[in-house]
Design brief:
By secondary structure, chain A is α+β, with helices and mostly antiparallel strands. Chain A has 17 helices and 21 strands. With 535 residues, chain B is an alpha+beta fold. Classes of the chains: A alpha+beta (543), B alpha+beta (535). Chain B: This is T-complex protein 1 subunit epsilon.
Chain lengths: 543, 535
């Protein structure tokens, strides 16, 4: 009787735990599954995804990070891939698909080693080494653009931007857009470029071709009260007051109550309230401002007051637009009219209200300083505009990054093939298991050109053979040999101007390696039952 | 969408995986194209002067009968994401141009339909897109080549009327096109700034009224507000009115802060009463003193004030809406006054004639403000047998106004009746032969798709559509004249120049660009992930 072994309940009922080699393989399978979903979006011939959520909102996109986010991944191992896509997005802005595809391929390559009982830590060590070597090689071979020469510098940035837009819907107009993007990024303060200061406004209707860049700030007409139409809508060299004040006749204190004993006092109270707002308005007018913008509402009384004095006003202006105006005019947003003087109003050359499509826009241009610009994006449908905005954002980030770090490498799989060749050669010089593992990493790198050609409907085996042969036979001359999308073959992508900032590749390789290593290092997952499942179990238990 | 790993264990990657379905590759593309074609086919029958209307009943049982593409699609409440894209496409055309909202959807549908067979040939969708893009480019350039200019000025606007007539041709108002086209053009010209080529639509007010026929629609050089004078004994007509526009009520003013008035004696109560009455007196006095002969008030006023106003012979209108107040202020040059004490003579607006009119047999009256000091505000009073007709009439007039505005902005035109499309189709087809490579196929497909609009036009007109279109095509090539189109209303000539059927160049270009853009976007999708059981 005493030999009875009691069962030890360690975890809560319903907890799911799995472990060991089988678990690791299962994780790899899950990651590969999601990568398969994503990989068709890679490259200039990559396709888009249409994702509809439970509430019926649909999104059409080609952006890796957006797809990953919208898929709503719950699998814990796959979650790491989502995270690297996000991190690539916030760090570099572009290459979000590549990073996920590459991480998935590393895992795919390591699958056979895991099956053969190679210890995951050995794999991790080798991959880290390979990653380190790749990073070194990229830094070594990256082409530095000549920053001195303004023209060359500009054209380099434009090329980076148009490469980022290659796979997107706006690819057809990439020349015009890359111009816009480069101009927009260059309008920022070179010391502290803040990408947020580039506004992208979407106006439905109109063709892509009608998109344009405003060298300044533009925003949609805000909600206005009667009297607004009587205000002038065009100013040359106006003075702009930026406020964060509610200009409305209202109760000043929420919970206050005034007790009046004498009916004669009544009128005085009424007048006191009017005086409060009139005082504010007078101060603004005295400062010499002829455009009044406020974050908070400007009521009908104030609107009519300003109309009477030929002053333009707009209330409820979005915070981001106010910030842009504040940066570009160099003036603070005021939250009180006390001590409001002419020194606190900004200036610009021209302010005009313009009709764009069915919307009316207030456009401010001709600022003394640089520091902000706005892209007005036109297009037929909402989803189209949303996707274009995402693509522009990617391009802006790439240009922004390239400006900070002027090194570029050739895209179209060229850099990946070169790294792969380099690692293969390196692998031959080392002894032990690592040799095979580093070769596996080198093989994983080939996924990028392979996928690009597959998505374009080419014979990927054929192209890969050509690329490998080229890179191995003449490593020096063919260093930038990549996939030629136009003519189904291979070419020097550096010469065909498929340029990417080297920073993007550096980040891509380390992020993908990190993610793969993380998945490999996991040998057990313990998943607590979700609250919903828990309830179900306890209900069943009661039955 | 259940997945299994290599050892056969299922795993869940995305949330509610079992409730999502996924279509990929050609399956997805086909599903999308079919959805788009369904919408396009639905719209085909309302193209052209003999196009039919659709009745739409919404959730509340409200009935709309219309032939305007954007309106149909907007009220259909489509669920399918691709169909929704087309709705937005048509909306985009409406926002920008205001005309051609049906054709743009039909063209996009045709482009996708053509791409189906190209896809079956194994052509990569992005190759098709590239071809479409190139073809669209060729078509737009061709449009620029064949376009014509129409001339007009403030007095001679016959050509504008003709353009407006084309736009009205397919609408319910087509019996009265001549009259309504003229009204629309006059309205636009009244508010247009010909030098800056700018037209401000908010200065044109469209007011609907049931009763009478569409033919009774009139243009009023001024503003109509659907209100009565506040007291029936007030005069119904005021000449040379001086108008005070007030945004404060005829009531004792109230502080906004919470307040309480303590009345603890009879004396105080009487005092209060006196003060209140004084307020009314003071207010009417202030208005009278300023020299106003008409008061428009955004808010109400009670009977006491009303009585006082009548006594002082001050006609007044209460509860005038904010937008009307603004329009009247612009038209009469008045300033909107928020407090009685600020009322001065300078702030009054002037109008030559203000009349209260009753229309039809209904009790509702209207106040017409005419001969304003600043004439740049007009109202089109649309009349019709029932509400549905009035609403559709308004929409049609809006379209005509848009056409006129577009012509003022850019006076280049292309010929309608499918002439421009056929001509472009011929040009694109010709150009395709000079291009080697796969793109040739997609460019040729584009030229085929362009014919979809004239084909729909011809079949709606009861012609043998394919025969009619091919005949015109032949004639166009033979005579090299890009203004031959479908003779929809049996005028006996195919020459659209003689029939005066034309569209704005801007609208046509926009139509091509938007439809191509949409086709490209839909072709680029190869993966649909959505909750199961929908659509």
């Amino acid at each position: 009787m005493s030999h009875f072994t009691p069962t030890i309940v360690l975890l809560k009922e319903g907890t799911d735990s799995s472990q060991g080699k089988g678990h690791l393989l299962s994780n790899i399978d899950a990651c590969v599954e999601i990568v398969n979903t994503l990989k068709t979006t890679l490259g200039p011939r990559g396709m888009d995804k249409l994702i509809t959520n439970d509430r019926g909102k649909s999104t059409v996109t080609n952006d890796g990070a957006t797809v990953m986010r919208l898929l709503d991944v719950v699998h814990p191992a796959v979650q790491t891939l989502v995270d690297i896509a996000m991190s690539q997005d916030s760090e570099v802005g572009d290459g979000t698909t590549s990073v996920v595809v590459f991480a998935g391929e590393i895992l795919e390559q390591s699958r056979s080693f895991i099956k053969e009982n190679v210890h995951p830590q050995t794999l991790i060590k080798a991959f880290r080494k390979a990653c380190f070597k790749c990073r070194e090689r990229i830094k070594e071979i990256a082409v530095k653009s000549n920053v001195e020469d303004e023209k060359q510098w500009n054209s380099m940035l434009k090329k980076c931007a148009s490469t980022a837009m290659n796979s997107k819907l706006i690819a057809g107009h990439k020349d015009a857009f890359s111009d816009m993007v480069v101009q927009a990024v260059r309008s920022l303060d070179p010391e502290f470029p803040e990408v947020d200061l580039i506004g992208i406004k979407k106006v439905g209707g109109g063709a892509m071709e009608e998109s344009f860049l405003v060298n300044g700030v533009a925003f949609k007409k805000t909600f206005s009260y009667a009297g607004f139409e009587q205000q002038p809508k065009k100013f040359t060299t106006p003075k702009i007051a930026l406020l964060n004040i509610e200009l409305e006749l209202k109760n000043e204190k929420e919970n206050a109550e005034i007790r009046i004993k004498d009916p004669k006092e009544y009128q005085k109270i009424v007048e006191a309230e009017w005086e409060l707002i009139y005082e504010k308005l007078e101060k603004i007018v005295e400062s010499g401002a002829n455009i009044v913008l406020s974050r908070l509402p400007i009521g009908d009384l104030a609107t009519q007051y300003f109309a009477d004095r030929d002053i333009f006003c707009a209330g409820r202006v979005e915070e981001s637009d106010m910030k842009r105006l504040s940066v570009i005019t160099g003036k603070q947003i005021q939250s009180t009219t006390n001590g409001f003087t002419s020194e606190m109003v900004g200036e610009c050359e021209l302010m005009e209200e313009k009709q764009i499509g069915s919307e009316r826009y207030n456009i401010f241009t001709g600022f003394e300083k640089q520091g902000s610009s706005t892209i007005i994006l036109r297009g037929g449908a909402e989803q189209f505009l949303a996707e274009s905005e995402r693509s522009l954002h990617d391009a802006i980030m790439v240009v922004h990054r390239a400006m900070l770090n002027s090194n570029v490498v050739a895209g179209g799989g060229a850099i990946e093939m070169e790294l792969s060749r380099y690692l293969h050669e390196y692998a031959k010089t080392i002894y032990g298991k690592e040799q095979m593992l580093i070769s596996a990493f080198a093989k994983a790198l080939e996924i990028i050109p392979r996928q690009i050609s597959q998505n374009a409907g080419f014979d990927s085996v054929d192209i890969m053979n050509k690329l490998r042969k080229g890179h191995f036979e003449k490593p020096k001359e063919n260093i930038w040999m990549g996939v030629d999308i136009e003519n189904e073959g291979v070419c020097n992508t550096m010469k065909s101007f498929v340029w990417e900032p080297s920073l993007m590749k550096l980040n891509m390789i380390s992020a993908a390696t990190d993610a793969a290593c993380l998945v490999l290092s996991v040998d057990e997952t313990v998943k607590s039952p979700s609250l919903q499942d828990n309830n179900k179990i306890s209900m069943e238990g009661r039955k | 969408m259940l997945r299994y790993d290599s050892s056969g264990k299922p795993f869940i990657i995305i949330r509610d995986q079992d409730q999502k379905e996924r279509l990929t590759g050609s399956e997805a593309r086909k599903a999308n194209i079919l959805a788009a074609m369904t919408v396009a086919n639905l719209m085909k029958t309302s193209i052209g002067p003999l196009g039919m209307d659709k009745i739409l009943v919404d959730q509340d049982g409200e009935v709309t009968a219309t032939n305007d593409g954007a309106t149909i699609l907007k009220n259909m409440q489509v669920e399918n994401p691709i169909a929704k894209l087309l709705v937005e496409l048509s909306q985009g055309q409406d926002d920008e141009i205001g005309d051609g909202t049906t054709s743009v959807v039909v063209l996009a549908g045709a482009l996708l339909e053509e791409s189906l067979s190209l896809l079956e040939k194994g052509i990569h969708p992005s190759k098709i897109s590239e071809g479409y893009e190139k073809a669209c480019d060729i078509a737009v350039k061709h449009l620029l080549k064949i376009c014509d200019k129409i001339e007009f000025d403030k007095e001679n606007y016959g050509s504008l009327v003709k353009a407006a007539k084309t736009s009205l041709g397919s609408k319910i108002v087509n019996q009265y096109t001549e009259k309504i086209a003229k009204i629309s053009v006059e309205a636009v010209l009244a508010v247009a700034d010909l030098e800056r080529k700018d037209v401000r639509f908010d200065l044109i007010k469209l007011e609907g009224k049931t009763g009478g026929t569409l033919g009774d629609t009139e243009l009023i050089d001024g503003i109509i507000i659907p209100k009565n004078f506040s007291h029936p004994q007030m005069p119904k007509q005021i000449k040379n009115a001086k108008i005070a526009i007030l945004t404060c009520p005829f009531e004792p003013p109230k502080p906004k802060t919470g307040h309480k008035l303590d009345i603890d004696s009879v004396k105080k109560y009487k005092e209060l009463l006196e003060i209140e009455q004084n307020y009314f007196k003071e207010m009417t006095d202030l208005v009278k003193k300023s020299g106003a002969t008409l008061v428009l008030c955004q808010w109400g006023f009670d009977d006491e004030a009303n009585h006082l106003l009548l006594q002082k012979k001050l006609p007044a209108v209460r509860w005038v809406s904010g937008t009307d107040i603004e329009l009247i202020a612009i038209a009469t040059g008045a300033r909107i006054v928020p407090r009685f004490s600020e009322l001065t003579e300078k702030k009054l607006g002037k109008a030559g004639m203000v009349t209260e009119k009753s229309l039809g047999t209904t009790d509702e009256n209207m106040i017409v403000i005419e001969k304003c000091s600043n004439t740049k505000t007009v109202t089109i009073l649309v009349k019709g047998g029932n509400k549905m007709v009035v609403e559709e009439g308004k929409r049609s007039i809006h379209d005509a106004l848009c056409v006129t505005r577009n012509l003022i902005k850019d006076n280049r035109i292309v010929y309608g009746g499918g002439a421009a499309e056929i001509s472009c189709s011929v040009a694109v087809n010709k150009a395709s032969k000079e291009i080697t490579g796969i793109e040739q196929y997609s460019i040729r497909a584009f030229s085929q798709a362009l014919l979809s609009v004239p084909i729909a036009l011809a079949s709606n007109s009861g012609l043998n559509s394919l025969e009619a279109v091919s005949e015109i095509q032949l004639k166009q090539i033979e005579k090299e004249s890009p203004f031959l189109g479908i003779d929809c209303i049996s005028m006996g000539t195919n020459n659209m120049k003689e029939q005066y059927v034309f569209d704005t160049l801007r609208g046509k270009i926009q139509e091509f660009l938007l439809a191509t853009q949409m086709a490209k976007m839909i072709l680029k999708i190869d993966d649909i992930i959505r909750p199961t059981g929908q659509y």
